[in-house]
Amino acid sequence: MPFHSRPAAFVRRIRFKWDMLAVLWFILGVFASRPGACAVAVSRLERFEYSQAAMGVRARMVVYAPNRASAESACKRAFARIARLEDVMSDYRPTSELMRLCAKAGGPAVKVSRDLLKVLLKAQEISRLSDGAFDVTVGPLVKLWREARATRKMPDESRLCSARELVGWRKLEIDAKNATVRLKYPGMLLDLGGIAKGYACDEALRTLKRCGINRALIEMGGDIALGDPPPGKKGWLVQIPAAQADERCSQLANCGVSTSGDAEQFVEINGRRYSHIVDPRTGLGLTHRAEVTVIAPDCTTSDCLATAASVLGPEKAAQWMRRYFPRVRLYVRPAADG
Ligand code: ADP
Ligand code: MG
Q1: 30 within domain boundaries
Q2: Residues with beta carbon < 5 A to ion ligand 2?
Q3: Mutate to test the pocket of ligand 1, among 55, 124, 135, 191 (most ligand atoms within 8 A of CB)
Q4: Considering every ligand atom, which ligand is closest to the CA of 300?
């Protein structure tokens, strides 16, 4: 049996080592699962906050990290991710991927990046469900209303008419399998103002998570992406002015919160106030004034749903949301005049 004895001893030694490891694992598990063990690690986390200009607003990050170096390096990466997304989705930069795509409107399909494809697919889904209330092909109309804001004059009727003809989510063709997009008619213009910031918040949060930071908040204008709560808390304190008194200051985590309204961006012409949000069906800036807040599982969703709900108006929006997004929370309050 000498031939077998050495391997048998070897196998026994390995088994013994594995048994020892299992015992060690068990002991560690028992200690780690004690309530105190977790609290020790969590209590060592410190709060850090950074902000930077991005996508036309101030992007703010609040993170809980073991030290300044790890907080700074993670937030730097997250800001860099937002900057890259701005290069993809900006409608102000003629060199952005979005604007280069729009320059080919009326031509053949164009290959797009993963980010642009994801955002456009999400936008099309919300357009379909909202029957075109949310529509990223709204660019030609937004352009006219931006001019109106500068001149304080109503857009010319014939130009409004031509712009309206270029708008409609069915005029945007997406081939998800081949990652290509085609704008069917020359002059079409995409505007991701109602979804890009939400997506950027989500992606920044993902970047932080990849760096090991899960307890984080990212805010860009009216859009907030929330990760795990601050240590020892049930959630992040978020103000929702449109909610009833008992929900106005909510503790939230792992979700997106977006607010849309015309509080800051609007034009007043002949005593009427037109919002920067346009109803793609009429071509006009919204005149029914309301502040809308949406809480959804992620910030890309909350961003476009808040814009869609603004266009639909309070009653229709509530019905629509109950039908298609029963778990999403919607708060609407009439905006105060002024
Ligand atoms: P904000 O940009 O102020 O956070 P929203 O998220 O509601 O507000 O987005 C409004 C922006 O979305 C507008 O400035 C414009 O760029 C774009 N937009 C306007 N109307 C629509 C619409 N019906 N559907 C999709 N996007 C729109
Ligand atoms: Mg929005």
Answers
A1: no
A2: 194, 260, 303, 306-307
A3: 191
A4: 2
CB neighbours of residue 67 within 10 Å: 11
∠ CA 312-313-317, nearest 5°, is 65
Strands (E), the chain: 46-54, 57-65, 110-111, 172-175, 180-183, 216-220, 223-226, 236-239, 249-252, 255-260, 266-269, 272-275, 290-296, 329-334
Q: Which of 57, 138, 201 is the pocket-test mutation for ligand 1 (most atoms within 8 Å of CB)?
A: 138
37 within domain boundaries: no
- The CATH number of residue 90's host domain is 3.10.520.10
Ligand located closest to 303 CA:
2
Q: pLDDT tens for residues 270-329? A: 889 999 999 999 999 999 889 999 999 999 999 999 999 999 999 999 999 999 999 999
Looking at the domain assignment, is residue 24 inside a domain? Answer: no
Residue 23 vs residue 141, higher pLDDT = 141
In whole angstroms, what is the distance from residue 195 CA to residue 221 CA?
Answer: 12
pLDDT digits (tens, 9 = 90+) for 172-188: 999 999 999 999 999 99
What is the domain range of residue 243? 46-334
Question: Which two structure tokens, joined as six digits, stand for 143?
Answer: 């352009």
pTM of the shown model: 0.88
Poorest-pLDDT segment among 4-8, 194-198, 265-269, 308-312: 4-8
Indicate which atom in ligand 1 lies nearest the CA of residue 260.
7
pLDDT at 27 over 60: no
Distance from the alpha carbon of residue 22 to the mean position of ligand 1, in angstroms: 56
Residue 14 included in any domain: no
Which residue puts its alpha carbon closest to atom 9 of ligand 1? 194
| Total tally of structural domains belonging to the chain | 1
CB of 29 within 8 A of CB of 183? no
